[in-house]
Structures are given as structure tokens and as C-alpha cells.
Specification:
By secondary structure, the protein is an all-alpha fold. The protein has 16 helices and no strands.
């Protein structure tokens, strides 16, 4: 698992207390709830696991949600991709979700199922894809990215790519287009539709997904986005894929990518512009 971070029970208890302070979404605040959650996940000890499980069963929704949040990525790092105690955590999350009425706790459970990546959780995620609450649908879109090549997940992501909420469209487009590798005419057409999305992030994800599939119709939009003052990683990566480059060339400017695309695809650019 890599470096083990030691902590006393008193230190663990204090971190659990901090997870309930401030606003739920205060991810960037020093000493805020998400910093405490990250520290607990890094400790990833049996003591942290046991206390988080107890919180998952607490009568207070705020504690249940934080217990789920902690377990969702317990011990998970860039070097260690698997969640610690994952086989024990999965049935706990499922048991919370099956009886849960609080929408915020449901949200966290769906996100946790995405992080765990257990295929058995996919039907539970899909049950909430039409939830009236946009935060819950967003959690569904996020979680489905872990199963983006599953036929049932593909159908749900296609639906969510047309959601009224721009953030949901954005994440569903990322899940299907970038995280997933499935390639069908229906998927390509859905990504093409998102090129006209009013949300710039969704449009960029559509370009990235189409570039991954080397769809020639993306070329005008790809070049337009390369001409922006700020060019996202996904757009540059799409250019690399269209040019059959194995990786991003850090020495190239956006103009050099445009020049290479314009030279290679001159006829196609004239056809689709």
C-alpha cells in the first residue's frame, strides 16, 4: 500500500470531528472537512475503517455521509489504485444505499460505488439515473465512468449526456467519450451533438472523445479550441490522437498542432468546415 501513516486514536477521533465542520463542499479549505477526510483515507488503518463503519450506521445523516465518504477511497492513492478493505466496504455501502432516504447520503453512496468499481454495484447505480435531484444524477454520471464500456452504463450515459444540467452533461460526456472506449455510430453522433453544447467544458469533453475515436468531423471544432487563449489537456490530447502521436509533445505550441492538423487533413477540413 506504500507509506503507512501512523496516528493515535485521539488523532483519528479529532479528524473525524473535523469532517463535520464547515460546509460539505469545502474541498480547498486548509483544515476543512475534506482535508480531514483525505488524512483519514491516507491513514487507512483498521481503526479508521471501524469508526467509519460505525458512522455509516449512525442515526444522523451527516455522520452517515461522512462515513461513506471516508470509506469510498480508503487507502487509495496514485500509486495504490485499489481501495483498502474494498471487499468489506462494498457490502456496507450497499446496505446504506438500500435503506437510505437522505439524498445527500445517496449521493455519497453512488460516488463510493464508482470509486470501488465493483461491477455488482452497477444495477444499484442505474436505479438512480432518473432521480429528480440533479446532485444524485451527477453522482450517477460520475460513478458510471467506472463502467463506461458496459452496455447498460453506455445507455445511461447517453441519456445523461442530454440532461438539462450542464455539469451532468459534462461528466456523462467525459465518462462515455474519454473514460470509455466503446465506439458505435450512436456514441459518435451523441458526441457530435455535444459539440454545440452551451457548456464549454462539455464541448471540450466531446472533442476529446471524438479525437480518441479519430472522428474526422471533429476537426473544425478541435482547431477552433486549439486557437483559444487557454487550451485544455484533453483538447491537446485529442490533437495528438488525430495525428497518431504516442504522447503530447511538450515542445509544440498550439499553433504547431494546428499546422500539423491542417497539413494532414486539408481535404477533410474543407469538407467539414
Amino acid at each position: 500500500m506504500g507509506v503507512v501513516i501512523m496516528a493515535t486514536q485521539a488523532e483519528i477521533d479529532e479528524l473525524f470531528k473535523q469532517t463535520l465542520e464547515g460546509d460539505y463542499d469545502d474541498e480547498d479549505d486548509e483544515g476543512g472537512p475534506w482535508e480531514a477526510i483525505s488524512k483519514l483515507q491516507a491513514i487507512a488503518s483498521r481503526e479508521v475503517f471501524d469508526k467509519a463503519v460505525r458512522w455509516c450506521r449512525d442515526k444522523k445523516p451527516a455522520k452517515r455521509r461522512r462515513g461513506v465518504d471516508i470509506l469510498a477511497q480508503l487507502g487509495k492513492t496514485d500509486e495504490h489504485k485499489a481501495v483498502v478493505f474494498a471487499d468489506e466496504i462494498y457490502p456496507i455501502i450497499v446496505s446504506v444505499l438500500e435503506d437510505e432516504l437522505d439524498l445527500q447520503v445517496i449521493d455519497s453512496c453512488l460516488v463510493a460505488l464508482g470509486h470501488l468499481g465493483n461491477p455488482a454495484g452497477l444495477p444499484l447505480i442505474l436505479e438512480h439515473r432518473k432521480n429528480s435531484d440533479p446532485d444524485v444524477r451527477f453522482a450517477v454520471a460520475f460513478a458510471l465512468g467506472s463502467f463506461a464500456d458496459d452496455p447498460a452504463a453506455i445507455r445511461a450515459l447517453l441519456e445523461l449526456m442530454d440532461d438539462p444540467d450542464p455539469d451532468i452533461r459534462d461528466w456523462a460526456t467525459f465518462g462515455l467519450g474519454v473514460q470509455g472506449s466503446a465506439d458505435t455510430p450512436e456514441i459518435r453522433e451523441a458526441l457530435i451533438e455535444r459539440l454545440d453544447d452551451g457548456n464549454p467544458d462539455t464541448r471540450e469533453e466531446a472533442v476529446a472523445g471524438l479525437g480518441k475515436r479519430k472522428e474526422l468531423r471533429v476537426l473544425p471544432d478541435l482547431i477552433e479550441l486549439l486557437q483559444q487563449e487557454e487550451v485544455s489537456y484533453g483538447v491537446v490530447e485529442a490533437a495528438c490522437q488525430m495525428l497518431d502521436l504516442p504522447e503530447i509533445n511538450e515542445a509544440w505550441s498550439a499553433d504547431e498542432y494546428i499546422e500539423a492538423l491542417s497539413s494532414r487533413y486539408a481535404d477533410e477540413l474543407e469538407r467539414y468546415s
